[in-house]
Amino acid sequence: MKMVVAIIQPHKLDDVKEALKENEIFRLTVSDVQGYGQQKGFKEVYRGKEFTVNLIRKVRLEIAVNDAFVDKTVKAILKAAKTDGGKIGDGKIFIMPMEECIRIRTEEKGSDAI
Fold first, then answer.
1. Do the beta carbons of residue 106 and residue 21 sit within 8 Å?
2. Looking at the DSSP assignment, which residues form a beta bridge with residue 91?
3. pLDDT recorded at residue 25
4. Average pLDDT, whole number, for the chain?
5. What is the pLDDT of residues 94-107, one digit of tens each?
6. Mean pLDDT, residues 84-88
7. What is the pLDDT of residue 106?
8. Any idea where the domains of the chain sit in the sequence?
9. Distance CA 11, CA 24 (A)
10. What pLDDT score was predicted for residue 85?
């Protein structure tokens, strides 16, 4: 079992959800987050004053998958989240081992709980 965490552009969320659905990946958690990487923010003018915005809005997806679905999940995210030609700020994907998963309703454990 793995936990796939992806940080993507907010406007790519619907495309990524559709790509996951096409690959039979239906369970995910979505969070609005802020951060920065190579972009290091941007400058904006408000009421004549210049401000540096150094936390950029992103979307964080968390997807628990069985080992057989890891590659399908990553490929779906890569295909749907990449902007034309690929640009700084498209995001990152992290894959982490998941020690245990327990479904609260039935108390199933492991791969069956996902």
1. no
2. 8
3. 95
4. 92
5. 999 999 999 999 99
6. 85
7. 96
8. 2-113
9. 22
10. 83
For the chain, give the number of residues: 114
pTM reported for the whole predicted model:
0.85
H or E segment and range at residue 3: strand 2-8
Tokens of 104: 């609260």
Q: Does domain 2-113 have CATH number 3.40.50.12780?
A: no
- CA–CA distance, 52 with 40 (Å, rounded to integer): 10
Count CA atoms within 13 Å of residue 49 on its CB side: 4
Q: Residues 56-84, buried b or exposed e (16+ Cβ, 10 A)?
A: bebbebebbbeeebbebbbebbbebbbee
| Two structure tokens written together for 58 | 């992103």
